[in-house]
Amino acid sequence: xxxxxxxxxxxxxxxxxxxxxxxxxxxxxxxxxxxxxxxxxxxxxxxxxxxxxxxxxxxxxxxxxxxxxxxxxxxxxxxxxxxxxxxxxxxxxxxxxxxxxxxxxxxxxxxxxxxxxxxxxxxxxxxxxxxxxxxxxxxxxxxxxxxxxxxxxxxxxxxxxxxxxxxxxxxxxxxxxxxxxxxxxxxxxxxxxxxxxxxxxxxxxxxxxxxxxxxxxxxxxxxxxxxxxxxxxxxxxxxxxxxxxxxxxxxxxxxxxxxxxxxxxxxxxxxxxxxxxxxxxxxxxxxxxxxxxxxxxxxxxxxxxxxxxxxxxxxxxxxxxxxxxxxxxxxxxxxxxxxxxxxxxxxxxxxxxxxxxxxxxxxxxxxxxxxxxxxxxxxxxxxxxxxxxxxxxxxxxxxxxxxxxxxxxxxxxxxxxxxxxxxxxxxxxxxxxxxxxxxxxxxxxxxxxxxxxx
Length: 454
Ligand code: GCO
What we know:
This protein is of the alpha/beta class.
């Protein structure tokens, strides 16, 4: 038995702390060309030979577009407070400009209303990577016009759902879209050009700020924020070259996004490193990016280790790694949250994603995924430790509700707390889901007992 087979971590979170589960549109919805949906850059990228490890695509995925009601029942059965999902931009506005697609909008209306009747708060993300393909043909995020198309999209979704969602996130992980999509090219749209990648990063941040301003001008009541993937970057050794590498990586991963959001400036050391690859910035852009937010979401999976000579071998630390080959390093989450709290005037923080891929075995209808439970529990403890040291935290969400399309890894990596049999689309809650449910039940019971003074 692992330390966390018990549901009592000896922790009591504040009564209004938000517990949730997260997914994203492209990874679960399927129905790639149904009801008027346009193609996204991920639909196209999946057709590039060898772009996806198992040569799969998002055409069916978890078939959530049709099974949404069953999935909402699953979510409700876990007893979570919130569900973080994303809207597929090309489903609601097929070419990213011009005509809106009523059937696509209806789907998200059903989803949001379905959450509300089940007592679950909708946390809506506008951009979890599936940009309309049509916009990519005119340069995608590298084209400044896309910034304005995004603001229109944000306003359109606000018109439809702004009165019912608890929170709106502009972008999920701008670093991933910019760097993996445009510098290393392992994600859609698959470009390999640093200057383009940095311009994309800037336009993503600019569109975030302008969307916030436009939404507020419309009287938006939902909380507004952005989600960043962040990690502490540790030098492999104390050698000056490793220290310098760690400093630069920290600049490119964390400060490149946090500094403009909270200090209205890009980090000077990174600008110098980029030289001619630095983005074009217009007057007023940095002020727009620094528009105040109601929350900041952090996606945390592992730490990062910088090594100047050769790539860091993750097995050197002797720690367990997940099926993604990511080192399990929960104390890195405490370290990261404390650092954000100390270095920046942050709004309340959420862990908007945290979880692990492991090799699950379905035996007699049961998945004993103790490693995943252990992973989640240890990271919840890490959040509690940050809070004990003074960090303002508002919520924690598990990635992911369902096994799903794990981008370039296809369906080979399973992050769900609920198992999906892709042939039959049967959902089976894993032991980690049952643990999470019981943990939340216990939190609520303690909360109620405290409230009645029992
Ligand atoms: C992410 C993505 C998820 C991934 C998860 C695991 O935001 O990086 O939101 O889509 O599936 O991070 O790699």
